[in-house]
Structure formats: structure tokens, C-alpha cells
Amino acid sequence: MDEACKVVLITGSSRGIGAAIAEVFAKQGALLSITGRNKDKLSEVAKKCKENGSKQVLETIADLTKEEDMNKLMEETIKTFGKLDVLVNNAAMLHVASVEDYTGESFDKILSVNLKAPIYLTKIAKPHLVLTKGNIVNMSSIVTTRTFEGYFMYGITKSGINYFTKTTAARTIRYFLKIDNFCKMYIYIGYRTDSERRCFYIPHAFYFAGFAKDGIRCNAICPGLIATDIYLNFMPKEIVETALTAEASLLNGKVATVEDVANMAVFLASEKAAMVTGECIVIDGGRFITKINE
Ligand SMILES: NC(=O)c1ccc[n+]([C@@H]2O[C@H](COP(=O)([O-])OP(=O)(O)OC[C@H]3O[C@@H](n4cnc5c(N)ncnc54)[C@H](OP(=O)(O)O)[C@@H]3O)[C@@H](O)[C@H]2O)c1
After folding, report:
1. CA 147, CA 149: separation in Å to the nearest integer?
2. What residues make up the domain containing 57?
3. Residues 68, 197 share a domain
4. Which of 154, 191, 201, 207 is catalytic?
5. Between the N and C ends of the chain, which has fewer C-beta atoms within 10 Å?
6. pTM metric for this prediction
7. Distance 90 CA to ligand 1 centre (A)
8. Same domain for 186 and 283?
9. Residue 11 C-alpha to ligand 1 middle, in angstroms?
10. pLDDT in tens, 2-38
11. Are the C-beta atoms of 45 and 21 separated by less than 8 Å?
12. Closest ligand 1 atom, residue 37 Cα
């Protein structure tokens, strides 16, 4: 795949990590389909991407809680560029609440944006990715590696992203060969029943290749805490700053930046990562390892 004329669709690209991903892809000359709900912010990102080297940037206003908006997003992308090489499922929202404060309504909302939208977009992107042997980068989170106070709903959606990433990339299922007295061979998928256990079976691992059989890779990135609107929108700045200090890594006390995450997304989408699929890669300067050991 020629990096310079890749078509890349990035959700949640009106600001934060998604905007940084768009800008790094733009530097490589990629053609971009960017999307969000905020028209002005999206246009600002489009302008920067063009300045950074992208020849064409499509802006689509879409609410990812609506399937019709996602259909429109995909249709416009294909109509404009004629193909899709990379889908970056980046958009997400945060909802901080304890179990005691849980409401079905808030869970439905976060589930829609953070998990159902990436699944639906993957489904409608697949026919196009098959043609380009393209790939998917999902945005997960450090919350999948340890527990955070109040983040259980967000964490469930991001753990779902990790599972979805792995099963989309490649699935494994066991099968068994049974040979009867007439030397006839039968294939059984799944687990043997007790009566079947008494027969002569040859166990085999059998790989249902998932998207891998179509040459499509799928990976996820799990960033640590990064200063973006996702927190600043509903937490006082001082609390975010305290959290950023607490999350400082062993790498010179730094936390990762939106550019660090964007560089990883561009790497995973590139031919340099041709043999990487089903991975959920943590970017937090090693902080999560030290947390586990505390
Ligand atoms: N920042 C962190 O510390 C951190 C850490 C780990 C993982 N992440 C993950 O990184 C990704 C990007 O986060 P961020 O920090 O860049 O967040 P952000 O600054 O809040 O940006 C979120 C993006 O998602 C879009 N979005 C949200 N709800 C949407 C909806 N219903 N329909 C369409 N677009 C929607 C927003 O666009 P509009 O407002 O224009 O609609 C915006 O572009 C997310 O998946 C997040 O979970 C972030």
C-alpha cells in the first residue's frame, strides 16, 4: 500500500487524539475523511491537515449514536475517494459514576458511542477494506489494564474494544477428528460430549481466521492519561493536573501526548506493521507496569 495515497477515515477527529492522528497521517500525504459533531472544530482540523500535506480532506458531520449517520459517513467517504484503506475507530465519551449512581440511560449512551459505533463501522467498512487489504486501528484505554474509581462503564466499553479487536483480527476454535470403525472420518467443532470422549478422537486447533483471512489487520491502542477535552470537559483543571502528576511515567516523569498516540496509530496502519494484528498496545511510558507492582 502506497502510504502517500492512503484513504483514512478517523472518527472523533474534530479534536484531541483524533485530530492529532489526522494531522500525522496528513504529513504522509494521506487523503482524509474526518468526522465529529462540531462543524467549526472539524473545519479547523481540516485546514491544518491540508497545511500539513493532505491533498484532500472530507469533512462529515455525524453523530455516532445513529446508524444512518454512520452509513452517510461511509458512503460519502467511498463516493469522494473511491476506496478505504484505514478505519480509525477513535471517537469515545467518558462517563464517570459509581455503581450506586448507575442509570441504564447513561450506560446505553456510552455503549453506543464507545462500542456499538466501532462495531457497526467495522461491519460497513469491511467490504471496502477487503478490496484494499486495509486495516483497522481501534482506540482503547489504559483502564483495561487496571481498575479506576468511577470508570466502570467506560472500562467495560474499552474492555469490549480489546475483545472485539482480537476476535476481529483472528478467532480460534477447536475441532476434533473422529475416525469410526469403517475408517470414516468426522469433524467435530467445539467441545466433546462425554459419550464422544469414549470414541477415538484426534484433537486439533483450528483457526477461523477472522478478518485475517481477507488480509485485513485489526489492532488497538491503550493510551494512559493524556490531557484532552475528554477530562477537561467535566473535571476541574486542578483535578486533571493532579491526576496527570500521579500518572507521570518513569520516562523523565512525562505522560504521553496526543502525538505519541498518533504516531502509534500511523505505525500500526502502515506496512511496517504488516505482521501485527490482534494487539492492544499500551502507551503510557511503562506507568501501568509500575502501578501493577505497587
Ligand atoms: N485522553 C485520554 O487520556 C485518553 C486515554 C485513553 C484513551 N483515550 C481514548 O482516546 C480516544 C480519543 O479521546 P480524546 O481524549 O481525544 O477525547 P476528546 O478530546 O473528548 O475527543 C473525543 C472525540 O470524539 C468525538 N465524539 C464524541 N462523541 C461523539 C458522538 N456521539 N458522535 C460523533 N463523535 C463523537 C468528539 O467529536 P465532537 O465533539 O465534535 O462530536 C471528539 O472529536 C477515545 O477513544 C478515548 O477513550 C483517551
Report:
1. 7
2. 3-170+210-293
3. no
4. 154
5. C
6. 0.92
7. 7
8. no
9. 8
10. 666 899 999 999 999 999 999 999 999 999 999 999 9
11. no
12. 41
